[in-house]
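re: that chain from earlier
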Amino acid sequence: MRIAKEGYPFILTPALLALLALIGGWKWMALILGTVSFVFAAFFRDPERKPPGGEGLILSPADGRNVKIRRAEGKGTGAKLSIFLSPLDVHINRAPIEGAVEEVKYQKGRFFAAYKDEASKTNEQNVLKIVDSRRRSLTVVQVAGVLARRIVCYVKKGDSLQQGQRLGLIMFGSRVDLSLPEGAQIKVAEGERVKGGETIIGRFA
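^ sequence. v structure.
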């Protein structure tokens, strides 16, 4: 099982302590620490994904549950989808389309529960604008939650992305918002579970 590199300090520290506890004869402590190490390993798992082929497809940027769809409210605006990631979900974020990173913008904020609507407006977050070769653009927003205290972004402005490529991760429960351009079709429903880099979440018009 592939593990995100950010997870190794969380995994190896309790694993080492478990080994020391076992050597010292503290079997129950070794069991508890070993379990903690295993839980962290599961959280930071980083499975390979195979994006489906097809023109104009928009893939989910994250694993989780699509908790909210906000439809366009005016001309020139599109829809916005919010994906909630529980601590049990894979927390690697992925590029929904092939294109170039036009903007990366980090902003500090608060730490409301990621499933609440106010999280999208007030929580700590990292905004990535991605534009494809036909100048069609969308925005991926990594949003920290109550437990999350670190947003990791692997890409920078000017980078070229393949669809499904890893963008970063958010530690310990979070939310990812995806803003689609006007006219883009939505292919998922509220409450539906999605997989980053595989689930078709929308299609360009």
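The longest strand covers residues 99-107.
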